[in-house]
Amino acid sequence: MKADPAEQLRLLDLQGLDARLDQLAHRRRTLPEHAEIEQLDRDLRRLRDLTVAAETRASDLEREQAKADADVEQVRARARRDQARLDSGRVSSPKELMDLQSELASLARRQSELEDVELAVMERAEEVQSEVERLRADAAGVEGKRAAAVGRRDAAVEEIDNEAYLTQQAREAVVRDVGGELLSLYEKVRASSAGIGAAELKQRRCQGCRLELNTVDLARFRDAPSDEVLRCEECRRILVRTAESGL
Asked: Apex CA 133: angle with CA 132 and CA 139, to 5°?
């Protein structure tokens, strides 16, 4: 392939811009904030699952406490009625009096037992509610960290995208200086050579694969016309001759 030496030199500018675009794309993909946000999202899902479970337990205990309260109140109401009947003096039969006093004693024991159950349920409910509040606070803290990480990520992405835009604009200007056939070859080689389509021949060494050219290739390149497009025999990248090629 033949191409004006000036166009070949522009390939080095193009390669530099493409390398920068690749670096920016890699930096954008690998921002540490991406991994941080993913971890915080996992933490949030875990905390939300735990919160739902704790809230469910709290709701169950709330119903259990309501039942315990009702049971205690039922016994208290029965005891109040029996005590009122006893205090009224309307019961004159010794047997009825003894039965009434016995029932009051039984109700007192039952009330004490139910109040113990009620207290235990209340304590459990308070513990679970404290757990709910702690989990909600933990989730709020993680949400705050996530918001901060998202802010840092968005700022970094914006900075990268702005530089990428300017670099792409510069690339388009360089592309206009390169012939279509040479540009097509460059793009093809770049796609198959780890993003490097053109490399400088510097001090008899290919800057693409970093290998020094052998004597035969050097002689051939030395004798090649200035408009001939050279290819490295090792990596097959386009070799661009400059004043520092050492030919």
From this structure: 90
Tell me the per-residue pLDDT of 122-164, one tens digit each, with 9 for 90 and over.
Answer: 999 999 999 999 999 999 999 999 999 999 999 999 999 999 9
Decide: 211 and 234 in contact? Cβ < 8 Å: yes
- Strands (E) located in the chain: 198-202, 205-206, 230-231, 238-241
Burial of 198 (0-12, 13-18, 19+ CB in 10 A): buried
As to burial, measured by CB atoms within 10 angstroms (0-12 exposed, 13-18 middle, 19+ buried), residue 204 is: middle
Sequence-distant (6+) residues with CB within 8 A of 126 are: none
Sheet containing 205-206: order of strands = 205-206, 198-202, 238-241, 230-231
Phi (first) and psi of residue 206, to 5 degrees: -75, 125
Report domain 31-173's class.
Answer: mainly alpha
Radius of gyration (Cα) for the chain, nearest Å? 42
Closest to 120 measured CA to CA, from 77, 68, 63: 68
d(CA 214, CA 247): 12
Report the SS3 class of residue 196. Answer: coil
Domains of the chain, residue spans:
5-25+179-241, 31-173
